[in-house]
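User: Second chain of the day. Same drill as before.
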Amino acid sequence: MTTWAAGQRIEFVYLPTYSPNLNLIERLWHFMRVKILNSTYYEKHAEFRAASVTFLEDIKQYKKELRSLLTLNFRTVGGTSVHLSQTTQLPV
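Assistant: Same format as last time:
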């Protein structure tokens, strides 16, 4: 598999087993929760659904905040910075 991927210009990036900070959709979900859930009580499911849909429909208003949040630059627990376009070495 890795031999075929090398010929296709595919690079494997090995991530820790549980790493939500490296998963962009987890970052977006957290941002959405902060914007529509924090300190807000929705009496009915339809109200929560409407707030969620409105957030997603108007997501361009958060462009500046999301641009810095949804980046491929990551800082790991050990303090090293990783950018997914960097060359990685396959584990031996």
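Residues 12 and 55 are 33 Å apart (CA to CA).

User: Great, on to the next one.
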